[in-house]
Amino acid sequence: MDQTKMHISLNVSNIERSVAFYEAFFGVPAHKRRPGYANFDLSEPPLKFAMQEHPIQAGAGALSHLGFQVATAEQVWATRDRLIAAGLATFDEKDTTCCYALQDKVWAHDPDGNGWEVYVLLDDMLDEDVHEDHASMPLAPPAARALQPIALTASRPAKKCCSD
Predict the structure, then answer these.
(1) Model pLDDT for residues 90-113, shown as the tens digit of each residue
(2) Domains, the chain, with CATH or none
(3) What is the spatial distance between Cα 121 and Cα 98, in angstroms, rounded to a whole number?
């Protein structure tokens, strides 16, 4: 990958219906399919669009999280340094398996609790036999979501990436 891509992750009630819709909408097949999960890796517009089958709670909306896929780990850690310098709480994940891919990433939450990640794909793990077994997408406690100059490095609530 030679450019930054916007990343959007949605919770969907039925992965098969959603994949069919987005394949028609984007005009390309899904890049990766796993039980309850699919993603599209679009070059035009530059977008990494992921979906995970997850019950949608009334009033909560379908948004899982937002972010940017970047080309290098150096970009991830430079973003982390910039966020900390700006006084934002962050959470780092290095060599983490999430969404059936090996990634380095940094997280921050906006004042309303929306999760934002900046990540690099270290291995897209396209092998169908690879199973996700690492928690990701930390849910920061409300106090940590505020603009505070702290880095969250302590334990986080168990939350399985792309499935909870």
Answers:
(1) 999 999 998 889 999 999 998 778
(2) 5-152 (3.10.180.10)
(3) 10
